[in-house]
Known about the structure:
Bound molecules: 6-phosphogluconic acid
CATH class: Alpha Beta
Number of helices: 7
Oligomer: single chain
Radius of gyration: 17 Å
CATH architecture: 3-Layer(aba) Sandwich
Order of helices and strands: EHEHEEHHEHEEHEHE
Number of strands: 9
Number of domains: 1
Strand order of the largest sheet: 1-9-8-5-2-3
Amino acid sequence: MTAPQLVVHRDKELMALAAAARLITRIVDAQSARGTASVVLTGGRNGNALLAALASSPARDAVDWSRLDLWWGDERFLPEGDPERNVTQARDELLDAVPLDPARVHAMPASDGVDGDNAEAAAERYAAELAKAAGPGDHAGVPSFDVLLLGVGPDTHVASLFPELPGVRETSRTVVGVRGAPKPPPVRVSLTLPAIRAAREVWLLAAGEDKAEAVALALSGPGEIQAPASGAYGQQRTLWLLDRAAASKIPPEMYPPSSS
Ligand SMILES: O=C(O)[C@H](O)[C@@H](O)[C@H](O)[C@H](O)COP(=O)(O)O
């Protein structure tokens, strides 16, 4: 388990810009080292703000978009093209503006696909796609993602793993169907903590006053069942990217020495 590293930015706008710059550099480093990179995207306002900042970054095209694998940490289980789907929002914010290899954009199944409205079957399908992409040195039957992004909910949920619900308790499967999600829509598909923890780096995004309680709780170590975000960590790095409002209730001893 890698101890969480905290970075606090002045406000959510600057956090999105800084996180986008950080992601560009991380992808460029991975591509320089291995000729490819893989990133897991997250839904939500902070995740989408990062994608929008990346789309408008002057350094955007330092990334070789044709050699980037994109996966999702979770997805709202809705028909293809539904504006509420995370992949639809990601396309609008960034993906349609950059020359990605469509074969390397791994969207989670929609509810009108081959599995129909069976979220569990859709989850199994995505787990099989992840396992097929995993290599001999990878963990948990998923690729060693360079960066796995997670927005943090006000109840400390990450992806579609909600406190006390079955998904956060999953210890072997890499992808699960979620029903009865407290955050609409109720039916989702989500990576599990074992899959999340296979990533080289896990970056948790939280901005705004409405996240201050969740951030303080998750960092105080209550356990992942009560606070799923506290169970999200990477093999090499766990990074909390915050703004001052979201960091306003963390214990003083955890507050990083400088913030921008
Ligand atoms: O499908 C989703 O809704 C997201 O993946 C979810 O996990 C999101 O990241 C958090 O709820 C934070 O969302 P906000 O950034 O909008 O607060």
